[in-house]
């Protein structure tokens, strides 16, 4: 995977966390930068760890499926991208009353829930030529940035922008999957 694909993947993986952060920011009463950075750090660390776990699990299976590994990566990215697009089209429930600060455990649980797709992507990355350390760090940093921004703009923009960001992330994942397939088949 080249540097541009890694950057696109990192930001695509951060969009569901960004969408959640907008919701978290919208639920806060006047979010401060320190709270946004705290939230971004929690999400970013979790989002960096999960693709490495997925990659480790996928590496064990890689030797058994090398002949069709590119199809696995393509399929997984397309399924995850489609799920993100589908989730972006669902209607949200009623908004909760603003709070002063979210608990660590609430943020960690939300961060983990939004990083399940990163773990699945990590599994797919085990089947292609990829430096998982660089990719995991890129995903973590992109998530930290996007979540911090998401919390800060959450009160201004609301859930609609978060859902659009999640849709864009899904489209980007499908595009990355198609690129991986194209690169492998054109060799």
Name the features.
single chain; 187 residues; mainly alpha; elongated
Structural class by sheet pairing and helices: mainly alpha
Radius of gyration: 17 Å
- Helicity range of the residues? over 70%
Number of strands: 0
Element string (H = helix, E = strand): HHHHHH
* Sheet with most strands: none
Q: Which residue ranges are poorly predicted, with pLDDT under 50 across at least 5 consecutive positions?
A: none
The number of helical runs is 6
* Silhouette: elongated
Q: What is the total number of structural domains? A: 1
**How confident overall, as mean pLDDT?**
81
- Content of β-strand: under 5%
Instruction: Give the terminus-to-terminus CA distance.
Output: 14 Å
Describe the structure concisely.
This protein is mainly α.
Give a structural overview:
There is one protein chain. The chain has 6 helices and no strands. The mean pLDDT is 81. It is elongated. It has helices spanning 3-27, 33-62, 69-89, 104-125, 132-157, 159-185. With 187 residues, the chain is an all-alpha fold. The protein has one domain (3-185).
